[in-house]
Amino acid sequence: MLKISHLKAGYGDTAIIWDLSLEVNAGEIVALIGVNGAGKTTLLRTIMGLLAPWSGSITYRGRELTGLATDRIVGLGINMTPQGRRLFAGMSVEENLLMGAFLRRDGEIKADLERIYGLFPRLGERRRQTAGTLSGGEQQMCALGRSLMSRPALLLLDEMSLGLAPVVVEMLLDLVLQIREQGTTVLLVEQDVEEALLRADRGYVLEGGRISLSAPAGELLADRKLQEAYLGL
Amino acid sequence: MSKRVNYALFAVVVLAALLLPLTSNDYLIQVATGIAMYAALASSWNLIGGLTGYPSFGNVAFFGLGAVLAAALSVNLHWPYIDAALAAVLGSGLFGLVLGLPLLRLRGHYFSIATLALAEATMAVVTNVNFLGGGQGFSLPLLGSGKIFYYLMLGIAVLAAAGTYLIINSHFGNILLAIKSDELAAQSVGVNTVLAKSTAFALSAVLGAMVGVVYALWQSYIDPPTVFDPGITVFMLVMTLMGGAGTVAGPVLGAVIIGVLTQLAMSFSKNASSLLLGLGIMAVVLFLPRGILGVHRPAKGGERRGARPLRG
Predict the structure, then answer these.
(1) Which of A95, A113, B1, B176 is 20 to 30 Å from the Cα of B117, by its Cα?
(2) Cβ of A129 under 8 Å from any chain B Cβ?
(3) What PANTHER family does its record include (chain A) (predicted)?
(4) Overall number of domains in chain B
């Protein structure tokens, strides 16, 4: 579904990603793990067209994405839940969710809104509340809900667990399984490596802007070196 | 305040402004013309600086370009002034749209400094092109009573305020609000932010140029240092911030307050008005960072009205 080959990207004169290749197949949950500064967020931003790659290619369903504007890429069915939530702080919860459906023109937006409130009853209770006043967990639910409102075929999740209580992290990641059941492919960027690998099909380890390891999630979980490096076991 | 109260207030203010020339002297009309002019200019600045969150320091470029283009077309090509004015407004809007594309890639201070340079560069070009009047400027025929210009400026100010109201309550207004609150998030939900920002900049340019073409005729003599004075941008900005950026009435309120205070200070000494402006800026920054109309609105929290679905 998504195929990245020999990608190089960065900011200004500084390359962050060097010769990166990876693949995500339809229906999968793929975890991308790596320490701070490994290039995870840079990769997601490059996929979304928020950052122009220096070289290499990104194809989605056989179509080249590099050079396309972000709104075109969103229109093709890819959506990112950005790191740090990045809600429209002055808008209400409901307005934020509706912004997620920005490019949609079908008549099922209201129905999807109710579906999101079914998924996150807390958001339903606070639908008129300003998004900036939500708790961290609620904000992350709202950000995820906003992404789902675009009905993405491929969802890129950037560090959902950041700053959240373990019980909320588990709840959100369990939801990712549910999202996949409903037909959305997921590329999961996580620092909570164990929780991510427990739910993913496959995993890539990103180190210094390159993929250093790629294996089924179960194998990565059992990998001794990885356990030492990321799981603190 | 409820919608009804706002509409009533708007009607009263416009009616009072319309009746003003009946009761007062020439001096008062001239001052009121200046205030209406700045209300329109501040409202035009508010579109890009307040609604979109891009603090432009170069909006005087559109005012000046409007004035100079209209004068050049009417004096050099002998166009009827109304045609020249229309062409000048459209030309300035196009100028804003095209230059907005590169300039609006910059953010924060970088955008401010680039727009400051844009205004200075525009003045430099105008000063060196004979068709645009060069350093000499233009003399335009004197036109009848000052009341005409008062009503023209007032008309543009009302148009600017009504336009701002319509934009704020429109789909486009929601897009600008999204860009202002988090541009990356706006891009991520599929907003074509480049197009939206450039459109806001172009609309700001159109309004600024409208004021410029009327100003040229009102003053009947214009030259580059006058119509490209960076101080004009500073006034637009300070008035908007003082009244309340991103609101409909804020720029108008700011223009009235600063306009009246400036006149009062002038009666003491010419320098007193600059002093007052400086103190005003400090007071706004320290005590009213959200402007006069912003004080009553909660910065965070509180309920918002029901949301509407958005479509791209």
Answers:
(1) B176
(2) yes
(3) HIGH-AFFINITY BRANCHED-CHAIN AMINO ACID TRANSPORT ATP-BINDING PROTEIN LIVF
(4) 1
Record: contact A75-B190, CB cut-off 8 A: yes
Cβ contacts (< 8 Å) between A104 and chain B: which residues? Answer: 311-312
Cα B76 to Cα B62, B71, B94: the distances in Å are 20, 8, 22
Identify all chain A residues contacting B177, using CB atoms and an 8 Å cutoff. Answer: 88, 90-91
Q: Do the chains contact at B310 and A99, CB–CB below 8 Å?
A: yes
Instruction: Look up the ipTM and state it.
Output: 0.89
Give the pLDDT confidence of B98-108 residue by residue, as tens digits.
Answer: 999 999 999 88
Q: CB neighbours of A115 closer than 8 A, spacing ≥ 6?
A: none
Stated pTM of the model: 0.89
Distance CA A173, CA B86 (A): 59
Residue B247 forms part of a structural domain: no
Q: Which residues contact A191 (CB under 8 A, 6 or more apart)?
A: A33, A36, A159, A161, A162
Is B169 a member of any domain? yes
Same domain, A8 and A41: yes
Pick among B107, B188, B290 to test the A interface (most A CBs inside 10 A): B188
Q: What does the mean pLDDT of chain B come to?
A: 90
> Is the domain of A146 the same as that of A158?
no
In angstroms, the Cα distances linking A228 to A59, A221, B166 are 34, 11, 59
Query: Could you tell me the CA-to-CA distances from A37 to A55, A111, A162, A208, B90 in Å, in that order?
Result: 20, 40, 15, 8, 48
Q: Are residues A129 and A72 in the same domain?
A: no
Q: Which of A95, A117, A151 is the last residue of a domain?
A: A151
**Whole-number Å distance between alpha carbons of A75 and B44:** 33
Domain identity same for A131 and A45 = no
Q: Smallest Cβ distance to B304: which of A82, A109, A128?
A: A128
| A133 min Cα distance to partner chain B (Å) | 6
Q: What angle do CA A43, A45, A51 make, to 5 degrees?
A: 105
Cβ B312–A50 below 8 Å, yes or no? no
Higher pLDDT, B286 or A216: A216
Q: At what angle do helices A109-119 and A136-148 cross, to 10 degrees?
A: 150
Residues spanned by the domain of A98: 86-151
Q: How many domains, chain A?
A: 2
Helix (H) or strand (E) holding B168: helix B146-168
Tens digits of residue pLDDT in A208-219: 899 999 999 999
Q: Are B51 and B203 in contact (CB under 8 A)?
A: no
User: For A113-122, how does the pLDDT look when each residue is reduced to its tens digit (9 = 90+)?
Assistant: 999 999 999 9
Q: Which residue segment(s) compose the domain that B42 sits in?
A: 24-229
As a whole-number percent, the residues of chain B with pLDDT over 90 amount to 71
Q: Which of B192, B306, B307 sits opposite A69 (nearest CB)?
A: B192
In order of A30, A121, A205, B301, the CA distances from A185 in angstroms are 8, 24, 19, 35
